[in-house]
Design a protein that fits this description.
Blueprint (H helix, E strand, L loop, with lengths): L4 H8 L5 H4 L3 E9 L3 E10 L2 E12 L4 E8 L4 E14 L2 E12 L4 H26 L5 H4 E10 L3 H9 L11 E10 L2 E10 L2 E13 L4 E6 L6 E13 L2 E12 L4 H5 L11 H47 L3
Antiparallel strand pairs: 1-2, 2-3, 3-4, 4-5, 5-6, 7-13, 8-9, 9-10, 10-11, 11-12, 12-13
Helix pairs in contact: 5-7
């Protein structure tokens, strides 16, 4: 790939951000890290199924390798491990190799075939995505956007989490959600399909995977095929009680589609003809990017504030109803 080896190694060594870059990665939690060795809990879509496992990894920055071994295994694997290796081919070029070694429980042919198919498909998609990200590393900061919306609530945190968890009911309460379907293949894993409409555009379908942590009162999500201005969109709903009340929040992490920027920005404003063309082009590009970032921030912020406000009403109205005199 046409990217410095150090940049590619840094991307491989930072798995918490993988859900923004790798299509199959839904969520990664870093359990332990001492600068070289780490343990990760990962949720990944494999052949249409949401799988989870715990991996141990060893990072070697000098050799630019990262080796991994699954400790809590993905079914139906009996063993799974591998190595990322980045080899420098020049100041702006390198080769990235991803090796896997695995076995299936009982060596059942159908399980070996499934593991082979799922692992190969994800590895190829990861390598393609990583190459696309690494080759625009100079623009990556400008194309990524993270922000949070939050509300203070005078109500039980359990009711707030319940509202966020029961996404199938949002269409009855949240103005921009026209319909919602939720499939829960196993406890804590949700596949959600929203029918969303906004005043400024046509209705569209939003598909996402959500991982729910009821004891921590957190729900992380990843949009599966964001489209439009977004190359990637993930985030988290969280409920945090404290002595003075409860804060309910929505976090968003976005990667913008670079090829959507000129169309989204519209025609550039006229500039003085005495400015160099390259300078004018750079200004138009920056204006386009600023406009798109503002638009995405406003749209996603408005939608998440709407959900948070309905969660607040749900929790506080229950408290008021309980407090009414009999």
């Amino acid at each position: 790939m046409a990217a410095p080896a150090g940049v590619v190694y840094a991307l491989v060594a930072d798995p918490v951000r993988w859900p923004s870059y790798f299509p199959a990665n839904v969520h990664v939690e870093q359990l332990d890290y001492d600068g070289t060795q780490e343990r990760l809990r990962m949720w990944v879509i494999a052949d249409g199924q949401v799988k989870s496992w715990i991996s141990s990894r060893v990072q070697d920055a000098a050799r630019r390798t990262v080796t991994y071994r699954q400790d809590l295994l993905m079914e139906p694997a009996a063993s799974m491990g591998g190595t990322w290796t980045i080899t420098e081919r020049g100041p702006q070029r390198c080769r990235l190799r991803l090796e896997h070694a695995f076995s299936a429980v009982g060596d059942r042919p159908e399980d070996v075939a499934w593991l082979t198919r799922a692992t190969l498909a994800n590895a190829r998609a990861d390598l393609d995505s990583l190459r696309a990200v690494a080759q625009r590393f100079g623009r990556l900061d400008a194309l990524t956007l993270s922000f949070e919306e939050s509300l203070r609530v005078n109500g039980p945190p359990e009711l707030l989490y319940h509202f966020l968890y029961e996404a199938r009911d949002w269409s009855a309460h949240v103005p921009h959600v026209a319909g919602a379907e939720v499939e829960e293949p196993r406890a804590g894993i949700q596949k959600v399909t929203f029918r969303v409409h906004r005043p400024e555009g046509p209705a569209r379908t939003v598909r996402s995977v959500r991982v729910c942590f009821p004891h921590a009162q957190r729900i992380v999500f990843k949009e599966l095929d964001p489209g439009g201005l977004l190359a990637a969109h993930r985030g988290e709903w969280s409920v945090v009680p404290d002595p003075g009340g409860v804060t309910v929040s929505a976090q968003h992490h976005v990667v913008l589609r670079e090829d959507a920027l000129p169309a989204a920005a519209g025609p550039a404003r006229p500039r003085s003809t005495d400015a160099p063309r390259s300078a004018r082009a750079a200004r138009r590009e920056q204006e386009a990017l600023t406009q798109v970032r503002r638009q995405v921030r406003q749209e996603l912020g408005r939608d998440s504030r709407s959900v948070l406000e309905q969660a607040r009403l749900h929790a506080e109205s229950a408290v008021r109803a309980h407090a009414l005199p009999r």
